[in-house]
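Can anyone check this?
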Amino acid sequence: MAITSLTWKTKALLNRLGIGSGGEAKSFREEQEKEKAFDYRDRGIRTVPLDRIVGSVGRYHDFDTKFRLKNHVPHDKFEAIMKAMKQGKPLRPVELYQIKDEYFVVDGNHRIAAAKELGYSDISARIVELIPTEDSLENVLYRQRAHFSDQTALPYAIELTELGQYGHLLNQISKHRTFLEEEKGGAVSFEQAALDWYKTIYLPLVGIIQKGRLNEPFPKRTMADLYAYISFHQWNEGLSREYGLGINKLISSDMEAFRRKMAKKGDEEYPDMHREMTAFVLMHVAAKREHRIMEKLFALDEVREIHSVHGDVDMIVKIVLTRDLLSSDAEVIGQFVHNEIRQRVMRSFLLFQVSRAGHFKALRTGDTSPLPVLPPLRVGSQGVPHSITP
């Protein structure tokens, strides 16, 4: 405890002396002039990350780039606010101007400095947003985002990176509003429709995108970008796209049908991005090795049954695997055969024959139903499948 107190006092002393601090906070007037941000919107009270507060309207000379008080500024008020915060006393929200993703203090400089000193991550603030008027691509997109925020009043950020996409989202919300009014038999405000759209349509589809890993090939795109692309082609244009077996079944061709389908899913099962698949591995084994190989196979969690047979095949192994919706059956089976059976169980086998038992058919352990006759795939010594004639 004494060490912690000494560390804080030392840090505070260094801050007061100006040691370790450099530069000064950003000037709001300079940023406003640079961005030509004169049109404003009242955004009300929101929670703001402290690391986004970078400057001040009138006192930027008194704070460094980390919003710490400089040594020439009296610290009495700062220390009083620090004491109040430590005691948990409620303080009124600070007042901020916002230009793009940065915030500038109108009132509450000491409260913000104290919050940062105490390690807070965010602070409650009343926001007035200044909209840039320069016609750069970045600013045009920003104004479209601001217009979307004005229309929907959503307390959540939806970040798109392409021009015109916010219009598609507003069109969806408008259609959803009409649907809700018909369903409820009464008036529904645009803001109410937007919030319902966000919770029952936007978030479920974003959840599918995330769990299906559809965003991985597009590192520079946001989840909102992929939502806009998929939903526009699926619901506005009626154009089918292949997003992976199983994902196509989850995304209905109609927006409201998708909403109804998602509403029926419980929290634990939605969205289900994995499926069980059953496969059979047909193996030739050397004489007198059968029992030892069976022991090793049964040690694998995926192995459900093993049958000894006569004829061209010595052993049939029934396995149940789990795959995500972007992987193919052949890919998952091939990896399991190579990594688990070939590498862990037997390295000197003569031949594998792998037969698929249908899409996503979950079979219980101990199922004694007759094994179906299936068209085989042969996996050669390198684990690369190719078709053969039975």
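Reply from J.R.: I decoded it. The chain is about 40% helix and 20% strand.
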